[in-house]
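Illustration 12: ABC-type branched-subunit amino acid transport system substrate-binding protein.
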Amino acid sequence: MARPTVRRRRRAALAVATAASLLLAAACDSGTQSGEIKIGFITATTGPVAFAGQTFGNGTQLAIDQLNQEDYLGGGRKIKLVRKEGAENPARAVEQAKQLAGDQGVVGAICCILSPVAGAVKPITSAAKLPLDIYGATDLGLEDPPYVVRTTTLPQDANRSLARKVVAQAKPASVAYAVTQDNSGWVSQLKSFQEGFAGTGVRDLGTVNTLAAQTDFSGAAGQLMAKNPEAVVIAALQQSSISLIKALRSRGYRGLIVTAETIGSPGAFKAAGQTLADVPFPVYFFAGKASAQGQKFAQSYKAKYGTDPDDYAAQGYMAAYMMATAAKNAGKDVTRESVTKALSNIKSLDGTIYGSVRFENGQLHAPDSIVHITWTKDGRQTEWTPSGRSAS
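Figure caption equivalent — predicted structure in token form:
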């Protein structure tokens, strides 16, 4: 039988070995020692905005693939996207956010196309001190440093810009609006369009309200046409916008229809076809006028996915690039705390797909990259100029 002193020494040695194993496991979980940095990604490839969600996801994945290939983080470290399908459903996205928050190896997260989803997710990630980059939601004020930043290019600025161009070049005498009234992000976008038309002499004929769950837009189209506007502005969810445009055209409306970036994805044109031709919408990324880095992104995207990138793909790419830059700037010890600090220290970035951008209170701004575009009948995107349509 071993003497007590020997047994104590053996137990002590075992305790030291166990502690060392736990420390090694913890280091591996953090991703810093294993060479793998984990970024959570709450996707939306199903649900009400799956058209947009797919291209957001494509852009995000392309950025990660390219950054890993060029050893962006240095030292052979790789970024791993931890994907969780949220379907842009607030309850489901919250559950996915809780899973990411509970995984201490995840040092940052990317999420959210719809504003209500972003509003539901950010308290979860903030409570866990998990830095979150919102890549699509547009409601004003969602950014909340230090734990919540937003690389969504603000559509409000772009909408005002488009409204002013419509006034100057199409010269409508009157305008009517349609909005998804139970979505705060779209109400905010409606107001930005109205601000662009305000004080220009264009008569405001009023607003027709629709709902996010609405599927029949024949009534809304009838209400708009009864106002006899020379232009109709639609601030609504993607499928709602497509359905309302179809309803207006099928009823014979020949006036100008204006909408937001939501119809810019290839999936939107696939669903609506020529109905979207000559409908202007503003974007921050258009391959035809992109920066040098933007052109490179567009070429890589088309080579990988077989189609030109839209504004959503660009936003997904930028979100991943932003989070990767924070991880790179965090140094060797990449933790939630160091990534949060690195995100807060980013005030501007040069050489992005938007060119030079700046950040104010956690919000990205890229006003010089705004372009007003439209679909052609054969499914291409081109810069918009008035076609001479007149109201019926």
